[in-house]
Amino acid sequence: MSNSASKSILLSFYTFLSRVLGLLRDHYMATNFGTGWIASAFSVAYRLPNMFRNLLAEGTLSQSFMPLYSDSRKISQEEAKVMSGAVVSFLFFLLSAFVATFLLIAPYWIPSFVGNTAEYSSLVVRLASILFFLIMTASLAAIFMAISNSRDRFFVPSLSPIVLNLTYLFVLIIVFRFVEGLEQRIVVLSIGIVCGGVLQLVLQGGYVYRQGVFPKFNLNWRHPAIKKIGSLMLPAVLGGGFYQISLLVDIFLANYIQNQNPNLGAVVSLDYSQRLVQFPTGIIGVALATTTLPTLLASLRKNEKASIPQEISNVLSFSLFLTLPSAVGFAILGKPIIDSIFYGGKWDHKATETTFAALRFYSLAIPVYSMNKVLISSYYAFQDTKHPLRINAIAFAVNLCINLLLLHSMKHVGLAIASATSACITFCLLLIGLKRHDIAIHYQAFAKRVGKTIIPVLCLGVWAKVFTLLFYQDTLQRLYQLGISHANASRLTLAIVLLPSMLIYFFIAYLLKSEEFGVIFRRFVRKKS
Predict the structure, then answer these.
(1) Which DSSP state fits 173?
(2) How far is CA 10 from CA 24, 36, 103, 278, 521, in A?
(3) pTM of the predicted model, to two decimals?
(4) 459 in Cβ contact with 508 (< 8 Å)
(5) DSSP code of 218?
(6) How far, CA to CA in Å, does 417 sit from each of 357, 484, 488?
(7) Residue 438 and residue 305 in contact, taking contact as beta carbons nearer than 8 Å
């Protein structure tokens, strides 16, 4: 099995911890704010800086920076410090100007997009103006994380989202006890999130300093690396921008749907269904993509290009092995999953139904979302950001067309269908496009390995569906009779169905001698030893 797939197992554990904290955060968010107008205002306001943060901090910037940093290290460690210092200095100036511009124009253009009442628009502007500082902290932290990843240091960079989620929880659990009123609470939460971003930056910067590779800040903005990283990032930002803008369009269209159907809660339902899907894709897709890029760069440095197709194939099959069960689980067990995490307080059964309606379509594309992250990292290894740009442009056009086609008939569910469809098209085009770099995936061998994953997934799905149809409601009723609340009953019932599901999946994978199962088993045995 590939080196990057093996490394990603450990990294996935840390990411898993972060995502669990994220689900706990979402639970408190849901029970505090439900799907009302204040929760909707926060979802829209958070989406704006989050779009740019995802573009810069969680992919494009770090993955464009890493090949250049690797080239600088070939010259000398001192050159790497000077190069990274020039990039950080220029980035700080650029981001400062960008944030200042947003703060000036936000009160004028945001209300025209979100509509609704003046009170709603005003709250969106206020929250977005606070949260926009996340772009600054997250982007600068991304440079420090890329420096660590380039040196095969993954542990501390993986703690960054954990810090942010812990800050969330501190505000939601502790600070909220001293704050009255939902509107005041959402403002305090936004300030707390920005403070969490500052802590992320301090953590990553401090770790790089301890390694002795801290950037040497300088104002040499004519450094060749700045021009090069700009030429790499611009197509990548535009390409990633199509995906992020499509998510932003989804939120604004959901906002339009909610204005037309005030009791639907479309904005928050769409937002939470996306967050649930990001649980497996964040754990698996990001972990694999993060470890794949350094591995491919190392192969290129050693002139071992012939090994790259097998490396990519290994990582893709490993991604499918880990994400297909999640896709089936969300599609079949979506309601108890949603109730287990969100139910209570201001979150009711109607909110669950609305969220599941979108989740079941998002879930079908979970494996594709994860594999797309890996494939885009592969293009970055060849310093090719233009081809993914063209592919993302096509996917964006498809997404927009399907959105407009299904908007009125299927409401927010149509937005989920459009997103999943465009992700599948992106995957196919990215995979085919690898031929541009003389990377030929051995599809027959890849299909054989995927076939060993499909059979356990089908068995898992049959068990989950049978339990849902025959035993789920009876189990809930018995737990109700014992005086157990709906949320806790859902959690217990979910545990009852998930444990056998996992055993079925891994046991059949073991019988079929799945290579992916072998990697996980060997890693577990080695850690235990």
Answers:
(1) I
(2) 22, 39, 40, 19, 13
(3) 0.73
(4) yes
(5) -
(6) 10, 36, 31
(7) yes
Nearest to 442 by CA among 323, 293, 312: 312
- Rounded Cα distance between 518 and 476, Å, is 37
List the one residue out of 98, 119, 96, 122 whose CA is nearest residue 110: 122
Count the Cβ atoms, other than its own, within 10 Å of residue 49: 25
Show Cβ contacts of residue 124 under 8 Å, excluding neighbours closer than 6 positions.
Answer: 41, 44, 45, 110, 111, 114
Residue whose C-alpha is closest to residue 388's, from 374, 400, 409:
374
Q: Which two tokens stand for residue 153?
A: 């240091």
CB proximity list for 74: less than 8 A, separation 6 or greater: 301
Nearest to 412 by CA among 364, 370, 365, 356: 356
- Model confidence at 519, in pLDDT bands (50, 70, 90)? low
How many angstroms separate the CA atoms of 161 and 203, rounded? Answer: 11
Distance (Å, rounded) from C-alpha 196 to C-alpha 160? 9
Residue with tokens 């080196």: 3
* C-alpha angle 472-475-476 in degrees, rounded to nearest 5: 85
What is the CB neighbour count within 10 angstroms for residue 349? 12
Residues facing residue 344 across a β-bridge: 347
Chain-centre distance for alpha carbon 362: 13
Report percent pLDDT > 90 for the chain: 25
Contact 44, 124 (CB under 8 A): yes
The tens digit of pLDDT for each residue in 337-382 reads 999 988 888 888 888 999 999 999 999 889 998 888 888 877 877 7
Q: Give alpha helix (H) positions in 364-442.
A: 366-381, 386-410, 412-433
Task: Kindly give, in sequence order, each residue whose CB lies less than 8 Å from that of residue 195, ignoring residues fewer than 6 positions away.
Answer: 167
Cα(347)–Cα(345) distance, rounded to whole angstroms?
6
Q: What is the DSSP string of 94-139?
A: HHHHHHHHHHHHHHHHHHHHH-S-HHHHHHHHHHHHHHTTHHHHHH
Q: Return d(Cα 449, Cα 454) in angstroms, integer.
A: 9
Closest CA to 369 of 415, 319, 313: 319
174: which DSSP letter? I
Encoding tokens for residue 448? 């054989």
Q: Give the tens place of pLDDT for each residue, 142-188.
A: 888 888 877 777 778 778 888 888 998 999 999 999 998 889 999 99
Q: What is the largest CA-CA distance in the chain?
A: 72
Report whether pLDDT(239) > 60. Answer: no
| Closest among 143, 135, 293, 154 to 214, alpha carbons compared | 143
